[in-house]
Amino acid sequence: MNYNISILGGGSWGTAVSKLLSENNHNVKIWFRNEKKAEIVKKTRENKHYLPDIKIPEEVYITSDIKEAVEGAEIIVLAVPTQEIRGLITGNIELFKKDAVLVNLAKGLEKDTLYRISQVCEELLPENRFVVLSGPSHAEEVALEMPTTVVAASLDEEAAKMVQDIFMSDYFRVYINTDIIGVEIGGALKNVIALAVGISDGLGFGDNTKAAIINRGIHEIAKLAEKMGADRLTFLGLSGIGDLVVTCTSEHSRNRRAGILLGKGYTKEEAAEEVGMVVEGIITTHAAYQMAKKSEVEMPIVNELYAVLYSDHKAEDAVDRLMKRNKKHEQH
Ligand SMILES: NC(=O)c1ccc[n+]([C@@H]2O[C@H](COP(=O)([O-])OP(=O)(O)OC[C@H]3O[C@@H](n4cnc5c(N)ncnc54)[C@H](O)[C@@H]3O)[C@@H](O)[C@H]2O)c1
Ligand SMILES: O=P(O)(O)OC[C@H](O)CO
Q1: What is the pLDDT of residues 5-22, one digit of tens each?
Q2: What is the pLDDT of residues 25-53, one digit of tens each?
Q3: CATH number of the domain that 231 lies in?
Q4: pTM for this one?
Q5: Which residue is closest in CA terms to ligand 1's atom 36?
Q6: Number of domains in the chain
Q7: Where among 178, 200, 225 does a domain terminate?
């Protein structure tokens, strides 16, 4: 079945997804907020800054008019950074028809409310069905049609199955899950741990340290998420350890790259500027730190990263403090 799909956000992931969905024979419109940018991409069929050297199919309709983009959409894909979603929806609330299914691609937690994106959407658009698409999926590789696996999660299993059908292709395999809390927390917090891994790389540490942060990182994420009601098994899946591994090891990861710069002494503002695309982990570290405090979950890596990013602590000292913590049982 072919659907009318509107993608809101013309960054690297929105662009790669527009190509995938168009090749799956859906009617795809992609919205860029910047008119000039939209015109250039329309003319060149390339999003040079965010996804260079990838041809956007002629069938993808490019517009900077959000009303035109959303008109008739059965599926609305949210492809802007986490902190922009509330403003984007509230500023255009009358355009979101109740029967459109929302598919969120963003991975993060809202800074002030500590909400997951499903909670933001539930508050603003309570009647729309909501699905999150998450998992190890760098835009650069999806655009090159490299085999990729993700998970579509929703409380509404039928909606998750619909998104599975819409996105699935020869190179893009989609699983479903109903543990939306686990999938959203995994996707958001892997960016925080990837920053920590990047810092370790930037400080010159090796693979042992990387594996340690990945492993103790998933332990922290799962502990927090379980307290919020998630299923621990989700963290063995694509949105858990799967996405954590890819983000902590990939040359494409913006979060890992920003971490490397932090490890080399850049400030978080300088690192984000240098990466030039959204580094979700920076703000999500703030939210995760608050969430851990509120839920009384011990998250040592998150705490140390928070101190480096928001209290000007030195990264070297953070590593030292982590290594010299009290002895403990591995599973606690
Ligand atoms: N890039 C990937 O490989 C990838 C993969 C999976 C998930 N994600 C997630 O998808 C989300 C988007 O990431 P991205 O990689 O496309 O980011 P990006 O930095 O490449 O692009 C973000 C885009 O959003 C636009 N934008 C920002 N604020 C906006 C607003 N208020 N209104 C309209 N447009 C706005 C920017 O102009 C830009 O085009 C992030 O949460 C990211 O974690 C990214
Ligand atoms: O480049 P990153 O660090 O934002 O990660 C992108 C995707 O979330 C990887 O699955």
Answers
A1: 999 999 999 999 999 999
A2: 999 999 999 999 999 999 999 999 999 99
A3: 1.10.1040.10
A4: 0.98
A5: 11
A6: 2
A7: 178
Q: What spacing in Å lies between the alpha carbon of 326 and ligand 2's midpoint? A: 33
Report how far residue 160's alpha carbon sits from residue 87's, in angstroms, rounded to the nearest whole number.
Answer: 25
With respect to residue 328, please indicate whether it lies within any of the assigned structural domains.
no
| Same domain flag for 118 and 69 | yes
* 263 & 202 share domain: yes
Q: Tell me how far apart the 2 most distant CA atoms of the chain are, in Å.
A: 61
| Residue having the nearest C-alpha atom to atom 26 of ligand 1 | 80
Asked whether residue 332 is assigned to any structural domain, the reply reads no
Domain extent for 42 = 4-178
Count of other CB atoms within 10 angstroms of residue 97: 15
The full DSSP string for 149-203 is EEEEE-SSHHHHHHHHHHH--SSEEEEEES-HHHHHHHHHHHHHHHHHHHHHHHH
Query: What's the 11 CA to ligand 1 centre distance in angstroms?
Result: 5
Contacts (Cβ under 8 Å, ≥6 apart) of 12: 47, 50, 51, 139, 140, 277
